[in-house]
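Private note to self, pasted from the team thread so I don't lose it. Backbone tokens:
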């Protein structure tokens, strides 16, 4: 049976198929066993059935009294013909459609559009074409291409437009949802930022749009239901409804509004207005993502794919037009950074690395950096800060040149260290003593006066990173104010300068660790995390705070277990409950172990072995080297929660009170972070196009990989039970791979 008739429309309703008895069916297009009757002149039954179909379609006018008589006659005629005919027929009921479906397949080259993916810088997809003989390999099959597969249904669009046009006025202003609608709306408000709304949910949100503002969590969901292509609907949404939310919007929703999904200027300006209420300390937590959000402000750079560069006056005019249509986010960040040296330093270096990136938005960031410098020049304090930023750039460039020379040199490591110390101590190089104290790019709270050449060294790893010790100007104050990293009580501040490695992924992980630590502290849960500082100064180098500590692998080799190591400086024979270790040190160890176990679980940190698990003498446990995140791991079957046997043994084993305390802290930390899941997800979403290594591998799944860790589809009680199972899931393979890693490290050394 052919699915399409001679009018090229899809057949509908009941079909009568002629059966060729005793003959093998021929499925070819020009079949010798067609389903239609060949001699139509003698097919009275076919003629009568065609009349009935025309009547059902409305092609024949209906007259009730005459129709009854006609159907009686048709029934008698059908019975008479059926009794006389020797032919057999098969009746098949096909679906009926309100509109005809027309066959439009052509034997020609067809460009297949890709599925829509919300990336910031879309690449031109390869054109897929169907060759003329594409189907020649199988004469029974052919492929039908629907050019409208990725387009919205025009019938649904018209229905939605008609439905909403009746509600565009103030007629539904006093409309309140009933119990069932209210429950459904609350379910919608609880959905994570990544959730897609169905057409029914969007219509429900629009129906009760005048009452949604009573729930502060509803703003982003309401804006997702707006048809932004409709100017009338858009105008009502941004001018009449958006102001109803006032100042009750959370910072997580404001960050979501700055993402690529919301491009309307007034919506983004509303989010910037909410950010103005945040203090500088809070703003510093989100600054990395806010700089990334600038990409969605300037459309000229996002759509610029031309190979040639515009002239200077054309670029200036295009920038001016673009500035007139942005939300003011760039000006807000400039104004806040100018008045705060710490914000100023971070903002400057975040801009520099984006200017260094070879993407169209790099020119936009260069323009913002230029405006930032001009703003600094308008005040004496700003001029001084601009000079500090210039000196920081010179320092970074000097270290970069030296690190590159060390890495390319063929000298033995000890010879390289001697040359490095000689270079640092030489007064003509300007590092042995600074004319004025200089705030570090890594941590603007720390001012340094010189480089301590005697302590500086070079690490053994492949990239040979430099260990540079700076002498601080005010060591006591640095110890008190160093909230960006682990507290430094030494008069010297050690920094690792790494060349040849992209530290942007480590920088993101540490930033999210710092944020999650703040969130837990707001819940009155201090896990003694104090993440160290990381700053990527370009796409191939950066600075890392060096924390005096030892890896768990070296501690096990030198002391046998972690308890012996902690007893070296903090032994207390009276502390029987903490195995002869000072109670405060053991408490710090247990808390920091719990904190990092949960934090690394949330971000899916991989490649955990005893060489990147660190322990400071005061009990601070922490992780380093975040080259694998979001579930990636070079080892097979990694446990989701990273708890090694050495950690548990130091607590006294799984049956000890300290381990029970560790488990309790893990559950509390997981619950606290789960409450702030939307904030964390929105921050990760803003980094999708930031060039982060592991995010770039699967950008469309990056946020989802973090979201699944929170188990938002479960209740809080069920989520904790599931997390408990993961925490207790110890993998014996992990111990095996740690031993293999130890042997590999031994052979490498």
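Design output:
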């Amino acid at each position: 049976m052919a699915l399409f008739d001679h009018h090229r429309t899809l057949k509908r309703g009941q079909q009568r198929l002629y059966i060729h008895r005793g003959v093998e069916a021929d499925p070819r297009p020009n079949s010798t066993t067609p389903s239609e009757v060949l001699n139509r002149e003698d097919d009275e039954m076919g003629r009568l059935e065609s009349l009935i179909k025309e009547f059902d379609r409305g092609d024949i006018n209906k007259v009730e009294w005459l129709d009854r008589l006609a159907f009686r006659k048709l029934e008698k005629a059908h019975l008479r013909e059926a009794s006389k005919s020797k032919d057999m027929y098969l009746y098949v009921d096909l679906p009926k459609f309100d509109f005809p479906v027309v066959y439009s397949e052509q034997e020609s080259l067809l460009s297949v559009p890709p599925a829509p993916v919300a990336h910031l810088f879309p690449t031109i997809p390869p054109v897929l074409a169907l060759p003329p003989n594409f189907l020649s390999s199988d004469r029974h099959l052919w492929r039908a291409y629907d050019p409208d597969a990725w387009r919205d249904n025009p019938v649904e669009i018209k229905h939605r437009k008609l439905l909403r046009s009746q509600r565009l006025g103030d007629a539904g202003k006093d409309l309140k949802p009933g119990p069932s609608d209210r429950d459904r709306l609350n379910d919608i408000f609880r959905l994570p930022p990544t959730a897609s709304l169905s057409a029914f949910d969007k219509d429900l949100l629009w129906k009760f749009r005048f009452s949604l503002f009573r729930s502060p969590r509803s703003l982003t969901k309401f804006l997702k239901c707006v048809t932004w292509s409709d100017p009338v609907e858009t105008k009502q949404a941004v001018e009449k409804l958006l102001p109803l939310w006032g100042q009750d919007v959370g910072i997580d929703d404001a960050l979501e509004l700055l993402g690529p999904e919301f491009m309307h200027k007034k919506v983004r300006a509303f989010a910037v207005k909410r950010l103005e209420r945040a203090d500088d300390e809070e703003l510093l937590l989100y600054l990395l993502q806010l700089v990334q959000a600038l990409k969605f402000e300037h459309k000229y750079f996002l759509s610029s794919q031309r190979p040639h560069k515009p002239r200077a006056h054309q670029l200036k005019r295009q920038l001016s037009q673009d500035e007139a249509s942005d939300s003011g986010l760039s000006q807000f960040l400039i104004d806040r950074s100018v008045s705060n040296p710490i914000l100023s330093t971070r903002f400057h270096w975040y801009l520099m690395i984006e200017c260094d990136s070879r993407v169209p938005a790099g020119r936009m960031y260069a323009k913002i950096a230029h405006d930032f410098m001009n703003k600094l020049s308008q005040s004496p304090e700003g001029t001084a800060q601009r000079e500090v930023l210039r000196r920081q750039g010179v320092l970074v460039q000097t270290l970069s040149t030296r690190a590159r020379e060390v890495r390319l040199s063929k000298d033995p490591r000890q010879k390289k260290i001697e040359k490095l110390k000689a270079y640092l101590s030489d007064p003509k190089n300007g590092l042995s003593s600074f004319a004025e104290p200089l705030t570090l790019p890594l941590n603007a709270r720390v001012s340094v006066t010189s480089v301590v050449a005697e302590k500086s060294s070079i690490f053994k790893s492949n990239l040979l990173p430099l260990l540079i010790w700076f002498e601080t100007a005010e060591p006591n104050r640095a110890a008190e104010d160093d909230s960006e990293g682990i507290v430094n009580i030494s008069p010297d501040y050690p920094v690792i300068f790494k060349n040849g490695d992209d530290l942007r992924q480590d920088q993101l992980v540490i930033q999210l660790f710092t944020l999650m630590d703040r969130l837990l502290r707001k819940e009155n849960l201090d896990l003694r995390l104090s993440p160290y500082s990381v700053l990527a100064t370009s796409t191939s180098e950066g600075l890392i705070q060096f924390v005096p500590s030892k890896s768990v692998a070296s501690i096990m080799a030198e002391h046998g277990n972690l308890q012996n190591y902690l007893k070296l400086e903090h032994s207390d024979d009276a502390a029987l409950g903490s195995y002869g270790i000072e109670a405060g040190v053991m408490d710090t160890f247990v808390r920091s172990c719990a904190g990092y176990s949960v934090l690394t679980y949330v971000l899916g940190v991989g490649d955990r072995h005893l060489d990147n698990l660190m322990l400071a003498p005061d009990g601070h446990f922490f992780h380093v080297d975040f080259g694998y995140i979001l579930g990636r791991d070079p080892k097979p079957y990694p446990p989701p929660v990273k708890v090694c046997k050495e950690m548990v043994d130091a607590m006294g084993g799984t049956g000890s009170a300290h381990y029970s305390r560790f488990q309790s802290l893990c559950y509390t930390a997981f619950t606290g972070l789960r409450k702030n899941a939307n904030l964390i997800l929105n921050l990760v979403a803003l980094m999708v196009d930031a060039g982060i290594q592991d995010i770039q591998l699967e950008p469309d799944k990056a946020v989802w990989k973090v979201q699944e860790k929170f188990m938002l589809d479960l209740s809080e009680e069920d989520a904790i039970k599931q997390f408990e199972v993961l925490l207790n899931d110890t993998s014996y393979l992990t111990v095996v791979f740690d031993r293999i890693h130890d042997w590999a490290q031994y052979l490498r050394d």
